[in-house]
Each structure stands twice: as C-alpha cells, then as structure tokens.
Design goal:
SH3 type barrels; 14% strand; 409 residues
C-alpha cells in the first residue's frame, strides 16, 4: 500500500542519550516500557515537524533573497512579475517534506518493540510526503504557467492571438501526470502500468472529457483562423449572447452582454454553430442601418409634377438644403419619389456617416410584389444609441410609405 524504507546498515542507529532520557522519563511516569518507546518516537516526530517549519521559513527566506538579487541585477522587467506573483516561494515547501521523508525512519529505533507496525507507519508518512511534494510541484508549475500567460497578455501579440486554451491544455497535462504519480504511490504500481491501463480505458476517458477535447480543438481553430478574440463584439441568438467577449478558455467563452448580463457559451459551439462577429463595425467606424419592406405592385402609380401636396408632405421632414423643389420630369412614380426622398432624409441626419454608401433601391420579386431596401451607416460614436436611432428612422420611413399611398405586403 505505501512506500517502505529500505533496511540498510546505515539506517541502524544506536540509542541516543536523548532517546534514553525520553524513554526513562515516560517509564518514570509509570508508562509501560513498550508504550514508553512509542511515546518517545511520537515526541521526536513532533520535534521533526517543528524543525520542518523552521526549515521552510529559512529556505523561503533564502529563495526570496537570492531571487530578489537576481531580479535586481537584471534589466528585464518581465522577471519582476515572477517576484510579484511569488512563483518560486512554493519551492521552499519541498525541502521540509524531503527532510521528513528521509529522517522519519531515524526516530523509530530498531531494538524497540512498538505496539504498532513500525514499517507501516514509516511507509505511510513517507507516502504522504511524496504526495505532498508532487502536489507542491504541480502548484508551482501552474503558478509559473499562469504568470507566463499574464506576461503574454501584456504583449501586443496577445491582441491577435489568444493562447489561454494552450496554457490550460499544458496545465491539464501536468495535472494528469501528477494524478498518475499519486496513484502510483498509493497502489505501489509502476506509472507505465497505469498509463497502459489508461490506454485500455481510453474510450471512457474520451467520453468523460469530450467537451474538454472539443473545446481545445475549437480554441485552436478560433485562434489560428482569427475567428474570435477577447474584446470582440459577437452576436449569437442561439445562446442569447450579444456583447463583448471577456474570456476564452477550453470549456467556455464568457460574453458580457450590453445589459450587463454574462452569457457562458461552450467553446466548441462557436465552431459547430454560427455566430456574428461585429468587430468589423469598429474597424469601419460605422454600423449599417437597413430598412427592408415588400410593397404591392398594384399601388405604384404616376405622380404629376404639379402635385404640390405630395411635395409639401415630403419636405416637412427635410432640411432647407435637402428639400425637393419639384419633381424631376413631367411624370414620375410614387415609388421613385419615395426612394429619392429617403436618400435625402438620411443624408441630412448627423448620425449617418456621409462617407459610407447611402442607398435606396427596389427590385421586382413577382407580378404582385416588389422589394424595397433603404440603407445607410450609423457613425461609430452614435452606436450606443443605435436601437433608438433605428426605431426613430424606421417610424418616419414607414409613415411616408402611407403618405405616398404605397401599400405594404
């Protein structure tokens, strides 16, 4: 079950004066000689624990001084982060564990008849020390990787390449190795045999870690193809997500929505399902405003240039610069007039980007229906009020449809 100490001639020690004094002290209290030796070893064990704490304090102090001097001599500021995160201080816990591991056999005397199995107790304590060292090394490795990731996030390259998934994969690999080593200690089996057993159970492991494996592959695809980065603005109606990506990990992508709610999306869904990345809007400094309706063909009719009532109805929504003085040509249709007016109406508004295309077009779908599209781009500085601008604009566009006697389908 546990690691047993090797019986060699070097491990056999004679009764020390300290051992005799403790044993005689307990026998003087009327304790059975068999239990007196056990109590003596227990006292020495607690003394060893106290010495371990002292060693931990000393090694922690030495590591702090040595690493601090090395960092001060270095002109690179990156290593300062390792001091701030206290990465290497965790190594100080290894030395006390090693001290207990090698000295535990020295506090149990060979010629003392203990009321318990001495070899089992020594093996148990040594196994605990061994497991403690494995866990401590794993903690230091994870802290080291977290610090490397923290340093990477400060680099300009991090804006274009997300590596958090890769760091998590490496940490997962070290965690798996640590678990196998701990199982090896507890079962007294070779790590190679445990790996062989894992190979036989690979189908079960794949099923258990299915989401993690899919998420890791998705992280690679998202980063290599530059499909998604932290800070991107995405829209995914399937998960009610519409906001900024705050974190991309192996298992989940965190999205902070515009209403300050947080949506968690499994990473693999961003590859298997569709989503809209709206970051291109920021690059173009505008967002499209698109008005689409279907009109009845039968309602399209000619408008005379002398029809001043229609011109007056249109001009009340336009500025002096954009007002329609007269209808071009002897005759035109109410649809052409609507397209002309809608373009003028959008051009006069300050929230519309004049450098982007402002368009109004129509095309026939069949002999009963014609499709009308009016589009423009809202300036980037007005995107916070985009929905309000969209609603106000659409209301006026809908209103003028009825005033020009056009009919929606």
């Amino acid at each position: 079950m546990f690691i047993h100490c090797n019986k060699t001639s070097n491990q056999r020690i004679m009764k020390s004066p300290l051992f005799i004094q403790f044993t005689d002290f307990f026998q003087g209290l009327g304790v059975n000689p068999q239990w007196a030796g056990a109590f003596n070893s227990i006292c020495l064990f607690f003394g060893l624990i106290l010495a371990a704490f002292i060693v931990n304090f000393i090694t922690r102090l030495i590591i702090s001084i040595l690493v601090g001097r090395i960092v001060k001599q270095s002109k690179n500021k990156i290593d300062d982060v390792f001091i701030e995160k206290k990465v290497f201080l965790g190594l100080s816990r290894i030395f006390p564990a090693l001290m207990i591991y090698f000295m535990i056999s020295q506090i149990f005397q060979e010629n003392v008849d203990y009321p318990f199995n001495k070899e089992t107790i020594i093996g148990l304590i040594q196994s605990i020390c061994y497991i403690f060292i494995i866990i401590d090394v794993l903690i230091v490795i994870n802290l080291f990787l977290n610090t490397l990731h923290f340093i990477y996030l400060k680099m300009p390259l991090a804006k274009n390449l997300n590596l958090k998934g890769y760091f998590q994969a490496v940490k997962l690999l070290f965690t798996l190795i640590a678990i196998i080593m701990i199982i090896s200690v507890l079962t007294q089996a070779s790590p190679a045999k445990i790996f062989t057993g894992l190979g036989a159970a690979m189908a079960v492991l794949i099923l258990v870690f299915k989401d993690t494996i899919l998420g890791f592959v998705a992280c690679i695809q998202l980063s290599v193809n530059k499909m998604l980065m932290v800070g991107d603005w995405i829209y995914m109606p399937l998960k009610n997500a519409d906001g900024r990506v705050t974190e991309i990990s192996i298992n989940t992508v965190k999205v902070l929505n515009h209403d300050h709610t947080m949506t968690m999306i499994p990473t693999f869904l961003l590859v298997s399902d569709s989503f809209v990345n709206k970051t291109i809007i920021e690059k173009h400094q505008s967002k499209i405003l698109r008005f689409d309706v279907d009109l009845d063909v039968q309602c399209i009719k000619k408008v005379s240039s002398s029809n001043l009532n229609i011109i007056h109805s249109l001009n009340k929504y336009l500025t002096e610069e954009q007002k329609i003085e007269k209808i071009d040509g002897l005759e035109t249709t109410n649809l052409s007039l609507y397209k002309n007016w809608s373009t003028r109406f959008l051009k006069q508004n300050s929230y519309i980007d004049p450098d982007q295309t402002i368009d109004s077009r129509s095309f026939f779908i069949n002999n009963q229906k014609i499709h009308l599209t009016v589009s423009a781009h809202v300036k980037f500085e007005h995107l916070e009020n985009y929905e309000y601008i969209k609603n106000q604009t659409f209301e006026i566009l809908y209103l003028l449809i009825s005033e020009l006697e056009l009919k929606l389908i």
